[in-house]
């Protein structure tokens, strides 16, 4: 069941991204996506394999659901919210994005894709807030790099 | 998480290769704007991380990096090697003015270079294959990633200013 749900969510998030009016350019979206993806992959590895505070499933299909969440759903939600905060209320977009991420994390534990050992949803919430901040500042960094180039030349 | 399990052949090899790869980028004439350079350096790095943590770890676990299963600082440095790989790929894509016909040969050549680099990494004890993984499996992986990189670069270069003035 976890695979079907997470596959649908991944598809839905990508479809949503395809149809929304984007405030970021293609290269800005790609840059933010890759920054969040790299951080999220490393974070997942550290809390699961290094700190052993979260236990990951050993069942193939559930593991695929985890990969979809880690590598597509979470980074794409961060990219979409960044596109939306430039045309909607920032606090509203941030809150909805955080609630969706926590809901998906809850589903992941509900279906035992991941199981908390010495971990809770509060820590995940803090991590997701951190990701929102990083997404914003990585975009600023990228824009600054592009602007410096223009000023320089 | 360790800095390193033991400091020997693989660690020294990574340091030397990092130095060479980034020196080459630094010494080559600057062709691209700063944001495009940053974008494609991150592109290579991300592809390295994504593949390694997807097929090289977790449930699939086709290979082990360096001396231990746990995360070492030299694992991270190894991923940094993928950044120049991607940059040089688009750099020579422009140098050789790759077009529709040469596209195919260019991708095949880079996929072979990728497999060659990986056999070098095996010899240097940086990568250790396990669970039935064999070197030639990497050829389709490189074919796919290089094709995606080239197609993405085609889209980016058609829509954005990619060259320095």
Question: How would you describe the overall organization of this protein?
Answer:
Chain A has helices at residues 2-19, 26-50, 60-84, 90-110, 121-152, and strands at 54-56, 114-116. Chain A is mostly helical and 153 residues long. Chain A has a two-stranded antiparallel ribbon. In chain A, helix 1 packs parallel to helix 3 (60-84), helix 2 (26-50) crosses helix 3 and helix 2 (26-50) runs antiparallel to helix 5 (121-152). In chain A, 36% of the residues are buried. The mean pLDDT of chain A is 94. Chain B contains 6 helices and 2 strands, in the order H-H-E-H-H-H-E-H. In chain B, 65% of the residues lie in helices and 4% in strands. The chains are: A mainly alpha (153), B mainly alpha (165). The interface between A and B is medium-sized, with 28 and 28 residues.
What is the tally of beta strands of chain B?
2
Shape of chain A: globular
What's the structural domain tally of chain B? 1
Which class do the helix and strand fractions of chain B yield? Answer: mainly alpha
| SSE-based structural type of chain A | mainly alpha
- Biggest sheet features of chain B: 2 strands, antiparallel
Which radius of gyration of chain A do the C-alpha atoms yield?
Answer: 16 Å
Instruction: State the strand order across the main sheet of chain A.
Output: 1-2
Query: Most extensive chain contact?
Result: A-B, 28 and 28 residues
What descriptors fit this protein?
heterodimer; A: 153 residues; mainly alpha; two-stranded antiparallel ribbon; globular; B: 165 residues; 2 strands; 4% strand
Provide a short characterization of the protein structure.
Chain A is mainly α. Chain A has helices at 2-19, 26-50, 60-84, 90-110, 121-152; strands spanning 54-56, 114-116.
């Amino acid at each position: 069941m976890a695979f079907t749900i997470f596959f649908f969510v991944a598809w839905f998030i990508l479809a949503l991204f395809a149809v929304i009016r984007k405030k970021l350019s293609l290269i800005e979206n790609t840059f933010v996506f890759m920054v969040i993806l790299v951080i999220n992959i490393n974070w997942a590895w550290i809390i699961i394999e290094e700190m052993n505070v979260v236990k990951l499933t050993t069942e193939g299909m559930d593991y695929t659901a985890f990969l979809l969440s880690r590598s597509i759903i979470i980074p794409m939600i961060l990219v979409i919210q960044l596109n939306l905060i430039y045309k909607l209320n920032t606090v509203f977009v941030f809150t909805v994005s955080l609630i969706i991420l926590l809901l998906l994390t809850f589903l992941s534990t509900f279906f035992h894709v991941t199981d908390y050992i010495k971990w809770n949803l509060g820590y995940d919430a803090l991590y997701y807030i951190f990701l929102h901040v990083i997404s914003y500042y990585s975009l600023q960094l990228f824009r600054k790099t592009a602007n410096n180039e223009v000023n320089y030349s | 998480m360790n800095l390193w399990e033991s400091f020997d052949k693989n660690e020294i090899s990574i340091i030397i290769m990092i130095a060479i790869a980034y020196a080459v980028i630094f010494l080559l004439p600057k062709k691209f704007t700063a944001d495009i350079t940053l974008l494609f350096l991150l592109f290579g790095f991300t592809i390295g991380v994504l593949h390694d943590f997807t097929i090289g770890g977790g449930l699939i676990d086709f290979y082990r990096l360096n001396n231990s299963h746990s995360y070492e600082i030299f694992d991270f440095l190894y991923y940094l090697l993928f950044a120049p790989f991607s940059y040089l790929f688009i750099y020579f894509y422009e140098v050789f003015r790759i077009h529709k016909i040469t596209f195919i040969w260019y991708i095949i050549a880079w996929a072979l270079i990728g497999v060659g680099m990986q056999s070098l990494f095996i010899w240097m004890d940086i990568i250790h294959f396990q669970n039935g993984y064999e070197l030639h499996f990497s050829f389709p992986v490189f074919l796919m990633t290089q094709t995606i990189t080239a197609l993405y670069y085609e889209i980016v270069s058609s829509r954005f200013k990619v060259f320095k003035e």
